[in-house]
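Lab channel / #folding
Pinned by the channel admin:
"Please post every new chain as: sequence first, then the structure tokens as a reply. Keep commentary short and put observations after the output so the thread stays searchable."

First post following the new format, from NK:
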Amino acid sequence: MLDAAAESGRGLNNFDVLRLLAAASVVFAHSFLVVGDTAPIPEWAGVEYGQLGLIVFFSISGFLVARSWDYDPKLFTFAMKRILRLFPALIVVLLLTALLGLFLTNLGATAYLQDPRTKLYVLSNAVLQRDDFLPGLFESNTLKDINRSLWTIPLEFKAYILIAVLGLLGFFRRTPVAMALIGILTALLLTGTVRNWVPYANNATAFLADIQIPKTYVQQARDGALFMVLQPFAAFVIAAMLYRLRKWVPLSWWLLALGLAAWLLVATIGDSSQNTRVVATWVVPFIVLVLAYRTHAWFSLPSRMGDYSYGIYLFAFPIQQTIVHIIDPESGWVVMLITMPIVLGLAMLSWHFVEAPSLTLKQRLAPLVDSESTS
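Reply from TO:
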């Protein structure tokens, strides 16, 4: 059962493997996107590879973050843990990207440094206000984005806030029916009919994309244009629900096969790609948990290896855009082959010199935060 598996440590699951695969799928999808091409491998069962990677990322995060709150339900400690995991590497990649622009901008170094938009890029993204523009950078590229991957970071942070709110309201202590209802409702909101029927559901979806909830975003949510924002968030909530229901969730290969069959059936005979993506979002969190906990006996990463997936995810897109800027390749495979060794090296440095030390700091500060919050 999932409850027994959830008690095991990092060495008895393959979440790190799944995170690496998710990061690789995002890099793969973006490698062709930056050259204006489509991936030569068809999307898997109606879900594009980059989006599938996001669903996997958010599924893992939803389960583990819910477990983190359940183990230590203190708001300040929880906030500190989430901030130290999310922001140090983010700030480093923002600063390095801005520094990269100094050498690649077509404005000249002095004009680039004096342009307020250079500082604004770092500061805005550091406080999770989306800004994807650096002056004079990548203007001749197929895409003008600096780092398209960063749009998910504010979404992830909003998901953390949801877990904290649910925790403070007692959803991890009360009857699991309440958490089950939240998970089911979130899953149903993926369908346009339900989302348009539930009051303020489209406003909530617009909030996931922009905290100011502009009217244009509300309309886009009503039309289904913000599905790609709602989808990973829903996977996060569904995975958190599975954690709360863990005593009744069997990690069964038969259930995995049944969910996979339902997904493939809808993809094969369904009349809507949207329906396929909805079903995928429903079943992927469970598939992720089965694969994480039922495959560690077959293979696993070396114990000394860190979690490089976050660094890969953060660094990859600026590297890909730089490759396009410098050599203008026509093939996404070329971008992929050049990107992977570079971004893996950067991710390793990020883990060992930024992320892992931040996690150590988290462990050192937690007792101090606890004592202050209870005094």
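NK: The radius of gyration is 21 Å.
TO: also worth noting, The mean pLDDT is 91.
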